[in-house]
Amino acid sequence: MYIRRQKGPAYVALPDGTILSRSDLPSTKTMRWVARRKATVVTAVAAGMISKDEALEMYSISGEEFDSWVKAMTSHGRRGLRVTKIQEYRQP
User: Fold this and answer.
1) What's the rounded Cα separation, in Å, for the pair 45 and 35?
2) Which of 48, 64, 66, 73 is at a distance of 20 to 30 A from 83, taking alpha carbons?
3) How many domains does the chain have?
4) Residue 16 within a domain
5) 72-77 long-range contacts, CB within 8 A, separation 24+
6) Does residue 6 lie in a domain region?
7) CATH of the domain at 79
């Protein structure tokens, strides 16, 4: 039996001292993207645990969608990732 080794580190230490591991990532079968799951993926990419391309492939999301998550999280924090807040945080 062949087990494929994941690229990147198994875990990363975040600036706030918490540890983010691959087991903390959402399932690759995720269909419902809540703010917490989006934030976890964005954080994993920003910390270098997974690459952006790997995240796009793993979760079958577009680069444009991922970039919108990054922009929302950068501008408004995790709250900006909530679907109910899109209109409130969207620039005119």
Assistant:
1) 16
2) 48
3) 1
4) yes
5) 73/38, 73/39, 73/42
6) no
7) 1.10.10.10
Tell me which residue range forms the domain holding 52.
11-89
Summarised one tens digit per residue, pLDDT across range 50-76 is 999 999 999 999 999 999 999 999 988
Report whether 40 contacts 22 (CB < 8 A): no
- 1 in any annotated domain: no
Can you give the pTM of this predicted structure?
Answer: 0.83
Return the number of other C-beta atoms located less than 10 Å from residue 45's C-beta. Answer: 20
Please report whether residue 4 resides in a domain: no
DSSP letter string, 44-80: HHHTTSS-HHHHHHHHT--HHHHHHHHHHHHHH-GGG
pLDDT tens string 21-50 = 999 999 999 999 999 999 999 999 999 999
